[in-house]
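Async update (no meeting this week)

Hi team, since we skipped the sync, here's where things stand on the single-chain job. The sequence we agreed to prioritize is pasted below, unchanged from the tracker. I ran it this morning and attached the output directly underneath so nobody has to dig for it. Comments welcome in thread, and please keep replies under the output.
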Amino acid sequence: MKAIILAAGRGQRMMPLTKEMPKPMLKVAGKPLLEHHIINLKAAGIEQIVINLAWQGDKIKAYFGDGNKWGVSIQYSQEQPGGLETAGGIINALKLLGDSFIVLNGDVYTDYDVSALIQLHLSDNEAHLVLVENPAHNPEGDFALNHHQAISQKYTFSGIARYQSGFFTGYKNQVLPLGPILREKLDEGVISTELYLGQWDDIGTPQRLDELNQRLAGSSILATD
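Output:
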């Protein structure tokens, strides 16, 4: 199974850190966010990885190359300068991904074990989303675990998912956000969900990045005492 790491976003909210650097290349615990994803994918047995590129994508290519240094094979899916949004980026890369694949947002930090997604049995047009508890910046959440109840607790979409290629049948290769598609497909009953309670951080602002690095540094100090 292959995985795609989404790394084409402009990262406007991370300015000035992203003025000359793509957001997934910002460092957490001394390594670019993308590198953490690649290491985790390799540990889960996924060695064929696609990274989509737009803003400052040449810097991602220069750092990771073909992935050999990390024991993986990396292909790149180039997008137009402004990017194609999340769904558009996935659709643009389908020719590189095969019938079933894992998607990771490049701007999150997590210890989620994606090997759990490999074990799922999905039909040709289905998807499975990993949800997390709502962070302070998204208190209302995105989706419920039980989509058949009129009233249900909503949780935040982690940016981690597995899709069958047929999930995107009928959508054009163009600028296309993912959220509306997920809501439409939830109503059709072709999406399953799970709630993950482990490490997960959305690196959406310089402050959140700084707080995460401070937290991890503190944990490292405690671990070595």
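Quick observations from my side:
DSSP finds seven helices and twelve strands in the chain.
The two ends are 40 Å apart (CA to CA).
Reply here if anything looks off.
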